[in-house]
Design brief:
The chain has 290 residues and is an alpha+beta fold. The chain is 38% helix and 17% strand. The radius of gyration is 19 Å and the shape is globular.
Length: 290
């Protein structure tokens, strides 16, 4: 594997900013064009949005993870600034799963195909000792070949530890596993809980609950936590088949050890998925409707 290194200031000076791809509290993502003779290459620059400590830590942590992992379904890091405030990333022109789900939920076979790719990446990560820590719709990108790419590794860990530890709760509310709110979370099984949340949203069009923060007393989460599944399925008025219901019962367990591993979940999605041709056709159709 070619080592990813810090890039000199001249590299960044030679880039032409095309547009802003996204902007959040921590970072701004810019589309940048590099021109070398007749060759042109596009990058996504993820840059520090505010000069505050947590933002700097997120970017530094992300760099330390991405320089050690390489997988067909993980965003590629080409380099970074010498002060660690900007990442030079692969550009994925078709956005995130957030955009694709806006019009309507996916058929199970299409959603399973997407999650098959997600869990291929997670199986690789978990086997190498890495966890993502913030899996959600907006952190799953679609590249130029309509393949899935995991991104945003600011909460990722290697063997349970961040390069620089932070005091904030890892992940995004509504996707986090219940043990994240405790002092000793299982980060691998927490990733898989988040995968199940994403799959649930893809096939129903809405989240399984709003929050499992103990302070919030979310009614749907209380039903899940207390295993009142008959009442839960009636409340959400879903038409999920029994196999999917059984999967969610297992994956949303408050006991992390009861959840499937990334590899076992990958095999479940493999059996449910459609062909790559059908998946690409569905993605293209939804992109034209946006």
């Amino acid at each position: 594997m070619q080592q990813v290194q810090a890039l000199p200031p001249q590299f960044f000076q030679g880039l032409k900013i095309q547009s802003t791809l996204g902007e959040g509290h921590d970072a701004k993502v810019l589309l940048a064009l590099e021109t070398k003779g007749n060759e042109k290459k596009e990058y996504a620059l993820k840059c520090q949005a505010q000069k505050i400590q947590d933002t700097a830590i997120n970017l530094f942590n992300e760099i330390q993870i991405l320089i050690h992992i390489k997988h067909p379904h993980i965003i590629e890091l080409f380099g970074y600034s010498q002060d660690f405030t900007c990442l030079v990333l692969q550009y994925c022109p078709y956005g995130t799963l957030v955009q694709l789900i806006k019009s309507s939920p996916f058929p199970v076979c299409i959603a399973a195909s997407l999650m098959y790719q997600v869990t291929l990446a997670l199986t690789y990560m978990h086997e190498q000792g890495f966890t993502h820590g913030d899996l959600k719709l907006s952190n799953v990108l679609i590249d130029s070949q309509y393949n899935i790419k995991l991104c945003d590794f600011g909460f990722a860990r290697w063997n349970g530890k961040m390069a620089i530890e932070k005091q904030t709760i890892a992940g995004s509310e509504g996707y986090t596993a219940p043990e994240i709110w405790t002092s000793n979370p299982n980060y691998i099984k927490s990733d898989l809980f988040s995968v199940a949340v994403i799959f649930f949203i893809l096939i129903t069009g809405h989240p399984p609950f709003e929050s499992n923060n103990p302070d919030n007393h979310d009614p749907w989460w209380n039903l899940i936590k207390n295993k009142q599944w008959d009442t839960y399925w009636k409340d959400i008025r879903s038409n999920l088949d029994q196999e999917c219901k059984n999967l969610f019962v297992q994956m949303f367990s408050i006991q992390p050890e009861e959840r499937l591993s990334a590899n076992h979940l990958n095999q479940w999605f493999k059996l449910k998925q459609t062909t790559q041709e059908n998946l690409i056709q569905e993605i293209k159709k939804r992109l034209t409707e946006m």
